[in-house]
Amino acid sequence: MPIINSIAAMEADLTAWRRHLHQHPELGLECHQTATFVVDKLRSFGISEISEGWAQSGVVAIIEGRGPGRTIGLRADMDALPIAEISGAAHASTVPGKMHACGHDGHTVMLLGAAKYLAETRNFAGRVALIFQPAEEGEGGGRIMVEEGMMDHFGIDEVYGIHNAPGETAGNILTAPGPLMAAVDTFYIDVQGQGGHGAMPHQARDPVMAAVSIVQALQTIVSRNADPLDQLVLTVTQIHADGGTNIIADSARIVGTVRWFQPEVQQLVIDRMAEIAEFQAKSFGMSARVTYEKGYPPTINHPAQAGFAAEAAREVVGADHVDEATPPIMAAEDFSYMLEARPGAYLFLGQGDTPVCHHPAYDFNDAIAPVGVSFFARLVEKALPL
């Protein structure tokens, strides 16, 4: 695969930076050490326009080209996950219970590599906004940065991001116009029963029985209410009841996730979930309350920008290594908020045959970092030609 020579020469540095970040993971909005590392590197590259404190620990830096033009935003996420690492790598996490299990350390380093190259060459007319974002994993750092006015403050015209993809051939780049990743919502259903002795269930109202019935009925939303051609996932991930081996609990809680692409499908789930919970619980002589929390919207690529990004990718890895019609997946991404605010595209970069993201043995494949750096660099030079 043709990698820009000066970027290929960075590989040892990219690997060292990435492994340092891997050893020092931070969660959510509290990516302060990571941000300090990023800012120190940016300054060492000669980048002086650096703005800190976005979404608490986010960083946005600007590289000026050799003439006036548009501003292209490039985004990397920085946060890790609350997972205990079992990779056995020499550079494994040094922080108990925290690890970079989704490759955000690699994403950060790819954007740092692109920053170094672009700051040295400035072979473009316009500006590049380097967006280092915290809290992709659940708290919506991307949403917060958009709500804080980042796009307008820096005059960002288009925005692009990339994520590693375990299971895809290392170095391949995948994207598609339109829906790429699903929305994610979370629900809680609290069932109120009446506790009692496990030996005398007739004197109690067992919320576990009602909860099990509700869980089974919820599956009919996908199988019997939604159009089979609509993509919808409803997964119950937890059932809690504070009983014992001989105690019937007073209440039970059901927890789960919903993934969708069309707003009307989301509304269908909200309506039917409320009906199912209420009437299933009533059939057992109990009550149920649904708390439905709307999360990240679907990640929807703008067609023109997705096509443009695929063209840039082909110039880096070759046409045989680019898929610009990859099917959407039901995972979610808060880059969706940036794509709601500005035209742009999200892409996947093949990671090879490795453990999947969010697995305790996951580790970013350092060999693909120069590919990601070259893609970002080529995207900018192609979008902002001199």
Total number of helices: 11
Q: Structurally, how many domains make up the residues?
A: 2
- What is the quaternary state of this protein? single chain
- Extract low-pLDDT stretches: none
Helix/strand order: HHHEEEHEHHEEEEEHEEEHEEHEHEH
Q: Strand count, sense and closure of the main sheet?
A: 8 strands, mixed
Q: What is the CA-based Rg, rounded?
A: 23 Å
Strand line-up of the largest beta sheet? 1-2-4-3-5-16-6-15
Helicity, in percent? Answer: 25-40%
The level 1 CATH classification of the largest domain is: Alpha Beta
At the fold tier of CATH, the topology name of the largest domain is: Aminopeptidase
Name the overall outline: elongated
CATH 2nd-level architecture of the largest domain: 3-Layer(aba) Sandwich
SSE class: alpha/beta
- Mind telling me the CATH superfamily name of the largest domain? Zn peptidases
Mean pLDDT: 97
Beta-strand fraction estimate:
25-35%
Strand count: 16
Terminal-residue CA separation = 25 Å
Task: Characterize the structure shown.
- The chain is α/β, with parallel strands linked by helices and 386 residues long.
- It folds into two domains: 5-181 and 298-383, Aminopeptidase; 183-294, 2-Layer Sandwich (Alpha-Beta Plaits).
- Helices cover 35% and strands 25% of the residues.
- The chain is built from eleven helices and 16 strands.
- Strand 1 (49-54) and strand 2 (58-64) form a beta hairpin.
- The relative contact order is 0.20.
